[in-house]
Amino acid sequence: MATDSDSALSSVDVESRAQNPDQPLARRELRLRAEQEKVEQIARERERERIRSNAVKRAEEIRREKEATEAREAQAARFQDQINKSKEVPTLPPDAAGQLPGLSDTSSTETSQNNATPESAVAANSYSERGHVGAQRRKRAEEKLRKKAEAAAKRSSRKTNPPRLTHPLRNVLGRSFVVLVIGGLFAVLALPATGFDATNTGWETATTGDDQSVKVASTGTEAEQVSLGEFAVTTYSDLLLLTYGLTSGFKYSVTNSGPIRWPFPVVTPISSGFGGRSAPCLGCSTNHQGLDFDPVDGTAFNSVAAGEVVEVNDDGYLGKWVVIRHDIDGLKFDSLYAHMIRDSTGVEVGQKVAAGDYIGRVGNTGVTSGAHLHLAIIVDGVHIDPFEFLLNNTKGN
């Protein structure tokens, strides 16, 4: 049960909101700014992490390139050693010089030539031919090793192009653009996204029982057409009017007095009327059985009349909702408030409320296309048009 102090606080809250209607809009702007700053902080942290990751990768690439260069230089050195070794002329032992014709000193050579026999001459010619063939093979091997050494030297001196790094300014501009886009999405999502298809104009009296009658909308005299002309957008309500085309059918005033009142202490934009419409979201109805008010998310709303709370529920379609039963001088009806923030209501079944008492705050629970208050008026179990009902039963309209 609500205490007297709770009722007093609720009254103060309602009065402060009536005197300062732009306060919810300022809170919404603060929330959007905080969300945008959070997104920017995340972007900066990701940028720093990316720079650190690139630095680590670059250091690893430099280390690998250094190891590869050292390996190529070592291979080139080995090839050069092989070339140098191949150029060395093999020497024979001293005792072998006298055993092989043609390898002794000049005097011994001349002596051997003077004393040469046909057999020794044949042996000398055979050794000379073998030496010539060996020299050709050695020359080809040296040329092959030289080419390998030159190729290895070219590979070791070849510069490896470093990986291309993205310019920091370009990264900052790209991140800033992403942040602006995300901030714009937050702003768009904060606006109401419900559709509107109002076709109810005119009046008639529908008898609902022997003891009461209720005015509801029907076909009749056409509503006055209003042209925007040179309309200037100066308020949030004006922006909604231009965005959703609410140029007629929802003109009313709020006095905050009388037995039956509007759910908000100030005139609040209405985005979807009663009856047939195009479904504004997946799962939304095409035969709307209520009236959708679109103030800022979290705005407090009040009971339209004195009565007793008969149901407090929470489901996947209407979200958090409350039903209040009223009997105003014999006019009996139920008012239903849906999609409110779950922990925003403190009313209980059986609790008595007065007209204008705090009920809850506008939320986005259940199946919705955006935060709004779904208000339904039910007479003898039949949903009627809440706008026409309130327009004809509140003061100042």
From TrEMBL:
Residues 1-168 are annotated as: Disordered. Residues 1-10, 104-128 have a biased composition (Polar residues). Gene3D superfamilies: Glucose Permease (Domain IIA) (2.70.70.10). GO terms for molecular function: metalloendopeptidase activity. InterPro entries: Cell_wall_metabolism_enzyme, Dup_hybrid_motif, M23ase_b-sheet_dom. Pfam families: Peptidase_M23 (PF01551). Residues 25-75, 140-153 have a biased composition (Basic and acidic residues). Residues 287-386 form the M23ase beta-sheet core domain. PANTHER family: MUREIN HYDROLASE ACTIVATOR ENVC, PEPTIDASE-RELATED. This is Unannotated protein. It comes from freshwater metagenome. The lineage of its organism: unclassified sequences, metagenomes, ecological metagenomes.
